[in-house]
Amino acid sequence: MQRLITSLLASILLATSPVAAQTPVDLARQAVDTGDFATLETMLDEQTKRAREARDFVDLRGLYETLFATANSRRLAQEEAWLEQFPGSPYAATALGWSHMRLSQLARGEATVHHTSREAMEAHREERAKVLEMADRALSADPNFVPALDLALVLARYSSGQFAVPTLVERTLKASPDMRALTLGLTALSPRWGGSIEEQFALCDTAKAQLPQLDDDICLIYLAFYEDLGKDARKRALEALDRHDEPFLDFARRYAYRIEWRGRPEAAETSMRLFMKRVQPGAAFDRLHSDMRVIARIFADPFFQIEAEEALVAAMRETLIDSPEDYGILRELLIGIFDDATPGAAPDRAEEARALWRAMLIRGSTHADVWAAGGRLQGYLGNWAKPAVTGPYAINNVYYSNYDSNSLRAYLVNLFELHEMAARPESLPPGTTPDDLRDEVVLCPMFRVQRLFETVCTASPRDGGCKTTGWGSSASGEVRRLMARTEACAWERTAPIEDLLFQPVPLSQFHGDDE
Predict the structure, then answer these.
(1) Which of 29, 389, 295 is nearest to 287 (CA)?
(2) pTM higher than 0.85, yes or no?
(3) How far apart are the C-alpha atoms of 185 and 195, rounded to whole Å?
(4) pLDDT score for 346
(5) Which distant-in-sequence residues (6+ apart) come within 8 Å of 416 by Cβ?
């Protein structure tokens, strides 16, 4: 089934992908995917030799990021076969390490720990252990292989390995004196990951020996825009930024032009230009989508948003060719389909929407946002008023969010609206019957969710979904009053709260229900 889903998605993506001349990345892709590992070893030997002579690993880093920092089960299997055939290869071990790093990041997701499922956190730990194994294996074979050193630096932030960061950065800079190693080191030493501002500034100071272009201004700018150094430091960083034009500092300009510098004559053009510069395969597309909307709103340019959206879609599709199971990218494409359609209006992209969501399940089935997207898919397919169909998606959304109040509130409001609709049969949408809204699938689940919602909000009244104003804020009170005046759904109204907790609906129940 997984191969079928991936093949279907690939056929959709390739149908809209441009054909380009073969590059070193293309040749390496062909070698690894066809199992020509001897040729791959020779290619990487040659590229590594050239990179060391030039002290420039930009191209080799790009190859690893494109081909191996991916979510791709088929390629992962090929990488394992590659390492089995060449057990002493730092190239193969590094490739596997980067693949497991990407899988560990996807397993972890973007939600807070409190709202990340136990299953997701366990998968994250398992993948991270494999990263550590591969990084150790690669660096044992070649202590100065830069893509492996980069991998170790990324791993350091997740595994309390900050003590090793200065040594790793120093070794990397000797082989490739550029800002990449320093930025990885500064990120690993961030207070958010267990480091400190003092350690970050100390790392900047020691890096100056290998990076002549580095000065106190650049370090201040970097840290003032990535860390909370206070208003005075931010002000000094903005003044320093005006004196520097290095492309490395574009990230800081992007923020400055949206906040402090938005009144400058060049603010709109510069913000849009810097945004478009970032749109390329492998980018953080969810953040780019958010940034795009902010820029379009601030500078009131709808044409920019149209152009940017087209560029983002093209870059995401290109990324999926190597990383077809990256559920974050799949989700962004799926939401784009939803945003362009009216629910239930005989969508002409239904096959693509189904393929995208099913592919999301391969690596994202333990994440709430994947199930939220699945619920939206059902609405897109015209099933929004059929709780027997949409309910399992909502249950998994709640379960894998660790009972996030927002997920509970959304489910509660949906059930309440359906309950209100059931009282007016003439208002039912085409294809929905009164039997679709019977008590067993609307009223009783609504009472169950209400009790779970009350429990969560009693324990954490400041949770976002517990607000007593805004969308759906009156639903909980209405449901509570309804519970008090009915004898229906006795178990949901009276059972111990621990008995009302959900169990996840198995994946096997979702195959074929969206046809």
Answers:
(1) 295
(2) yes
(3) 10
(4) 47
(5) 446, 472, 475, 478, 479
